């Protein structure tokens, strides 16, 4: 696969993850596409941390999605049954538990995604990755009051735009990694400096001579 195909897969995957905030099945498809694309980009930049952080983010996001699905199922389909069977306490507890689990894992997912996007920002020079990572993290915090889901949707759209805006240049090296600069060539030794002259008789000798070939004086 090429750089263009990797970034396209990752961009489409990010867009589908955003849509998955509303329609979860598309989110799972987006997770797979993003994972494949980011893996290729990690190979392109020679930095496996891009993929490993994204992988952890994806795993936590899957768990967060699962908790959200449980919440929707209980709230829309199973709520009435639990209310009748448990006088409402079981349903309320399950909903609260799903909210807490979803919040924790969305937050963990955002932390690892942000790490991956920060590295991509540094390596590709595309600043939108940093913006999206910060917005995703803030959105994950605010999911507890629901407005965070809207911020996360915007963040994933920005991530998609960032992937499609990437260029295949080497980008900026990560902190602590310098670019080796070849040492300047040594100045040529002049022909005069390469000769040795006897201080006694002034005769010319070879550069590595120890005694003068003319008078025998030690050089």
Biggest pleated-sheet summary = 2 strands, antiparallel
> What overall form do the CA principal axes indicate?
rod-shaped
Oligomer: single chain
What structural class results from the helix and strand content? Answer: mainly alpha
In total, the number of strands is: 2
For the CA atoms, what is the radius of gyration? 32 Å
Mean pLDDT: 77
Task: Provide keyphrases for this structure.
single chain; 219 residues; mainly alpha; 2 domains; two-stranded antiparallel ribbon; 2 strands; rod-shaped
What does this structure look like?
With 219 residues, the chain is mostly helical. It has two domains: 3-165, no CATH class; 191-219, no CATH class. The protein is 67% helix and 2% strand. It has six helices and two strands, in the order ααααααββ. It has helices spanning 3-20, 24-45, 49-86, 89-124, 128-141, 147-165; strands at 196-197, 204-205. It has a two-stranded antiparallel ribbon with strand order 1-2. β1 (196-197) and β2 form a beta hairpin. The longest helix has 38 residues, at 49-86.
Question: What's this model, at a glance?
Answer:
The protein has 6 helices and 2 strands; from the N terminus they run ααααααββ. With 219 residues, the protein is mostly helical. β1 and β2 form a beta hairpin.
